[in-house]
Amino acid sequence: MAKKRKIIAAGVLLVSVHLAILLAGFVAPADPAAQNREFPFAPPTRLHFVDSRGHLHLRPFIYQWTTRPDSFNEYQESQEREFPVQFFVSGVAYRIAGIFACHTHLFGVEAPAQIFLAGTDNYGRDQFSRILDGGQISVAAGILATLISLVLGSLVGCIAGFYGKWIDESAMRFAELFLVLPWLYLLFAVRAFLPLHISPTQAFLLLIGIIGTIGWARPARLIRGIVLSARKQNYVAASRGFGASDAYIIRRHILPHTYGLLLTQAALLVPQYILAEVTLSFFGLGLSEPKPSWGNLLANLQQYNVLISYWWMSLPALALIVVSLGYLSVANAFHERLQSVSI
Amino acid sequence: MATEATARAPKTALMRTTALSKSYVQGEFSGKRFVINAVSDVDLEIAPGCLTALVGGSGSGKSTLARCLAMLEKPDAGEIWFEGRTLSFENLRELAHVRPKIQLVFQDSAGALNPRFSAAQIIEEPLEIQHREVGAKLRARACELMEEVGLSPDWADRRAREFSGGQRQRLAIARAIAIKPIFLILDESLSGLDLSTQAQILNLLLDLQQSHSLTYLLISHDLTLVGQVADYVGVMHQGRIVERGSPQKILGDPQHPHTQQLVGSVRVLESAFRTARAGSGR
Amino acid sequence: MRYFGRRLVHAGLLLVGVSVLCFLLSDLAPGNFFDEMKLNPQVSSETIVALRAQYGLDQALPVRYIRWVKSVVRGEFGYSFAYNTSVSSLLGLRARNTLLLTALATMLAWLIAVPFGVWIASRPGSWTDRLSMGGTSLFLSVPELVIVFALLWLAIRTHALPVGGMVSTGFDRSGPWEKLWDLATHLVIPVTALVLASLPILVRHVRASMIEVLKTPFIEAARAHGISRARLLFRYALPAAANPLISLFGLSVGGLLSGSLLVEVVTGWPGLGPLLLESSMSRDLYVVVGVVMSSTVFMIFGNLLADAMLFIVDPRVRVE
């Protein structure tokens, strides 16, 4: 039972994170591209319930950051005015899924104060908003690339397993080529062979194309295995005896056996592919500035002074870990359910 | 060649094979390939309206022959005639026309019925594929067939795996007769069932043969059973038919050593049974 | 011996296949190294044409491939445009460094994972077991990248270890012991990162495999004979559990190589990883192909090693 609760918790967490990312514009208080040059590397805004005079407020509030008079890159809270955190405020316009224009935000504070839940970077851009926005790229890349891999893998696996003989042999040998290469090396090499300086949209599409395409081999092998054993069943032979076409047999008798595996594979591949995008963007081979992705956000850490002095710049890693954890728990759950169900 | 052979084929045979052969390559074992000659040079005639039986031990090639006759496997050599016409895998149109007329009932009903399907879905499948019925009529026909084989239509939505062995075999039979075949191949369809269920299914099959004017090819290793129901018997051994004739002749006066061995073991069992019964004082 | 013969032939075919794939990919590449040069008005187009001819880039793909294969057989892997030196000299050094890192990390990871996995498998359901399972679950979700940075942060904060690179300046002038020490301290961060990244999955697999084996009747019988716990676990159960683990070893090499790419670049370890990155960015064709082939060789070698171990450990494989 504890296990079930853990899985439900993981599922809920995953869904809420995805929802937050999908509605990034709504959840984020600021425009991810908006720069505040006067606040480079500001630490996360602290939330208070008790003010400097010792009064308790029910609604959390913040103090504005101001630069310390003695140094130019350290901050202190200016305690002159409390800015309560308000919900459903009107702010900068954004688009949901690129279609619906909106300008209500989940929370915010009154101007001229700003709430930096995750601090700012060297241009003073709100990291919380950037993490959410970047999450859209990274998570979408992971999911879309997974779809590509699974579709390609299913196609090849089905055909190889169903028609067998030389089709199967050649397909599996080809798959072996992809499996024998360390995947990150292959990813980099393929990326290398394609144009470097391309627009963000092109980069995004290219990324999911590459990641998805080179990952076809493992799902293909697994699907092929299932198709091979399903094909030998006598109910498939009986179906053929009734005059069923190959397409009918594949659709009605063979594909249903693959659904469980596809779900588990999806849950395993998505975090891997998110990580692939993050890695490529981190090294400058994926999405580059100014469009945020968890990868190029983490790239800031390559400068050791950022790594040491500005801890909040590593928060995208936390987002990555949370998402991975969610997906892996779900994958575990699927795997266990699959084991108990026989063909 | 073909016309000559057709002229030779007795007009009374429903199905005929000449020099039918099929072999399998059983994997590669460190470079060597093991070729198994499942069926070698088999000449067989199926008379219409009768029950022809094929007996033999395991590995004698009975099931492979059954699958070849049901056009589920492509023979390596030889020819098959059905209703006077040659059947081949090349002539797809001809094949599609003939398929509904020849149906196979498998031994292992658990493997022959998709466990995720409901009883209704199983019976509806051939009807659907052959476009015999649609919609509500499809379901009605399926229920009709269920009743005909002795299953209650109330169970139409139960998954195949929820049925017992005997009930599953009834389902398989219902599915097989759904598209009104004229020739039914029963590949060890009674094996693996307990004796009373066997008897029930056998009776069902004999009734259906009467009501639907079916021709049966019964494949079995059970000589006693075959002796009771068959009109003609063929004995298979290592892929060949080594003896054929009426059941009385095969059981009473076996000629081929293998047949003698088979018949002999039946006698041994019978006498052992008799002795046991005598011993327990019944 | 026939077993190995077949495996070697198989490996050779794989290498050929991969090389063909690489060359095909390279041909698809729009643009090449000299595109950047073309933009420079000071370099005339004749120079570029001459350079291309010199490097053999103007010939058809099959011709280029054959030339490349011929030179590979002679031990040369083409020419690097960026470094202006032969690829093999570049590869040799870098490959050695990557091998050092990866081999060390692999050994360490397995040396820790096997005893630990066996130990927690012998007491399933205990709090150590549950803690380990939880811990490994968590660690599986932490990407290698994060682990490396965490370690770097630790190292910089505590000034305990040198950060970045393989050796310190003044390496050449030190004595042998100092050299060893220097190398070792530089190895700590990358090796720890790799080990931490691969431990969770290894431990889980060892545990799962052992639990399966411990359930079998023959272990029960051995236990009934009164064989001591340690002996039972390591002399009886572990060899039986070894088969899937050795296969895992073959697979884990690939993961470790990919991981090492990351770790090398971030920590500045001069291995194949940074080389691949640089040559990718500069479209240094033959270097990229060379690096990919080298990593494939490592993978294949790892798999062959796994096959060899399987042959030795599992008698069922020998019968085949």
How does this structure look, described?
The complex is a heterotrimer of chains A (343), B (282) and C (320). With 343 residues, chain A is an alpha+beta fold. Chain A has helices at residues 2-22, 24-27, 127-163, 165-180, 183-192, 200-214, 217-231, 234-241, 246-254, 259-282, 294-298, 304-309, 315-340, and strands at residues 48-50, 56-67, 75-84, 86-96, 100-108. Chain A folds into two domains: 45-115, no CATH class; 131-342, MetI-like fold. Chain A contains 13 helices and five strands. In chain A, β2 (56-67) and β3 form a beta hairpin. The model of chain A has no long low-confidence stretch (mean pLDDT 84). Chain B has 282 residues and is of the alpha/beta class. Chain B is built from eleven helices and ten strands. In chain B, β9 (232-237) and β10 form a beta hairpin. In chain C, β1 and β2 form a beta hairpin. Chain C starts with a helix and ends with a helix. Chain C is 79% helix and 1% strand. Chain C has a two-stranded antiparallel sheet. Chain C is mainly alpha-helical. Chain C is built from 13 helices and two strands; from the N terminus they run ααααββααααααααα. The interface between A and C is large, with 43 and 50 residues.
In short:
The complex is a heterotrimer of chains A (343), B (282) and C (320). Chain A has 343 residues and is of the alpha+beta class. Chain A is 57% helix and 13% strand.
Oligomer: heterotrimer
Q: Please state roughly what percent of the residues of chain C sit in beta strands, choosing from under 5%, 5-15%, 15-25%, 25-35%, 35-45% or over 45%.
A: under 5%
Biggest pleated sheet of chain A: 3 strands, antiparallel
H/E element order of chain C = HHHHEEHHHHHHHHH
Q: What does the average pLDDT of chain C come to?
A: 80
What is the molecular shape of chain C?
Answer: globular
Please report the number of helical segments of chain C: 13
- Order of neighbouring strands in the sheet with most strands of chain C: 1-2
Query: What is the arithmetic mean of pLDDT of chain A?
Result: 84
What is the helix content of chain A? 55-70%
Structural class of chain A: alpha+beta
CATH topology title of the largest domain in chain A = MetI-like fold
- Number of alpha- plus pi-helical segments of chain A: 13
Low-pLDDT ranges of chain A: none
Helix fraction bin of chain C: over 70%
Return the domain count of chain A: 2
